[in-house]
Amino acid sequence: MDKNTHIGALLKGYIKENNVSKAALARALEIGPANLEVRLKQDWIRTDILLKICTLLEHNFFADIATSLPEKFSTNKAKDSTKDNLIAELELEIKMLKRERDVLSNLISTKIK
User: Fold this and answer.
1) How far apart are the C-alpha atoms of 50 and 36, rounded to whole Å?
2) Domain match, 60 and 84 both
3) In this structure, are 59 and 82 located in the same domain?
4) Domain limits at 96?
5) What is the pLDDT of residues 2-51, one digit of tens each?
6) What is the pTM of this model?
7) Residue 4, pLDDT score
8) CA atoms of 36 and 106, how far apart (whole Å)
9) Ordered alpha helix ranges (H), the chain
10) 82 and 59 housed in the same domain
């Protein structure tokens, strides 16, 4: 995580942008509003609490944090091969269409002669 990622600021920004009630969030977390305010000022948060906040707000803050990390960092996330499969299918289709074009071109040129 880079030095500029402030978890409290990330949460505070989301809360403000989405008009989330801090009082309601504090109640759902079973903490006092003052305790929530303290947590929003910190640049860190326990992962179990962050996971609970993610669940309550239906927002993946872990993904937000992950985007601030360098792309060269490894992950256990399964690679999405949908694009690779689509590219392979389209390449095969292009190959078939080129063959059809060549066959039709040959037929037309032999009919013209």
Assistant:
1) 12
2) no
3) no
4) 78-113
5) 467 899 999 999 999 999 999 999 999 999 999 999 999 999 999 999 99
6) 0.66
7) 73
8) 75
9) 7-17, 22-29, 33-41, 47-57, 61-66, 82-112
10) no
